Amino acid sequence: MWFTLINIWIVISWFEWTYGASYSSRALSQSLPILALPMAVFYHKMKAKSWLIALVLIASFINIFQIYQYNLTILHYEKMNRLYYSRIFLNPHPTAYDMSTLDNPIYFDTLKYKKQNIIDLQKSGLNQSIFSVPIADSASFATVKLLLASTPCFWDGKLSYSLILGENSTSDPHQIPYLNPLTKPDTSNYYEFAVKCDPTKEGNIIIEVGCDEMENPLNETISVTFWRQ
């Protein structure tokens, strides 16, 4: 038992899973012969205990469901974080907001905040790719919703945002890929993500869409909603 626990702890203690991806750990395959012994004991005792059968069925369901998510790349093969995993766990229909937490791990419960105001850019063919949205007074968070038309950089491009707080304070850009399990090339796609603001400071949210390969402006609809406590 102690060997197994220590072995698992060592094997899964790596930041990059380049040899095993998110849903496997190839280095544990050498331990399978040893694990076969406790598995045999477990199945032997399971015959007399119905709760063990229920436990195995539940674990099997979770395993099969997550294999299904993995095949759709909802369960990402390499980059995972706790927030994103909590949003997709046993979730058959994750939203665009859920998808954004893989690269932008910010999520808040809108029921705990008051909707302050909404800024809409409800036009098609907006002739720009960078938008500056002033942050509402005392706003703690903002939710950004975008409907973007097809873009030539869909496969490797990213939309990004950054915060300008005060006079000279600019945050590093947060990037969200155009490509995710919910989006498709050659069609309009919907994106949604959260932005954490500083309620004590004035500033702007800078949103950038498009890419270097883009010749014409995207058809886009952008809505920003601010929330305060």
Notes on the structure:
By secondary structure, the protein is an alpha+beta fold. Helices cover 26% and strands 25% of the residues. The chain has helices at residues 2-11, 32-46, 50-71, 82-88, 96-100, and strands at 114-121, 130-134, 141-148, 158-165, 169-170, 174-177, 189-196, 203-208, 220-228. The strands form 2 sheets. Strands 2, 4, 5, 6 and 8 form a 5-stranded antiparallel beta sheet that branches. It has a 4-stranded antiparallel beta sheet with strand order 1-9-3-7. It is elongated and about 65 Å long. The termini are far apart. 17% of the residues are buried. The mean pLDDT is 82.
Give the percentage of residues in beta strands: 25-35%
Terminal residue distance: 49 Å
Query: How does CATH name the architecture of the largest domain?
Result: Sandwich
Helix content: 25-40%
CATH topology of the largest domain: Jelly Rolls
Query: Could you name the CATH class of the largest domain?
Result: Mainly Beta
Shape: elongated
Given as residue ranges, the uncertain stretches (5+ residues, pLDDT < 50) are none
For the sheet with most strands, the description reads: 5 strands, antiparallel
Topology pattern, helix = H, strand = E: HHHHHEEEEEEEEE
Number of helices: 5
Mean pLDDT: 82
Question: What is the count of distinct domains?
Answer: 2
Structural class: alpha+beta
**Rg from alpha-carbon coordinates:** 23 Å
Total DSSP E strands: 9
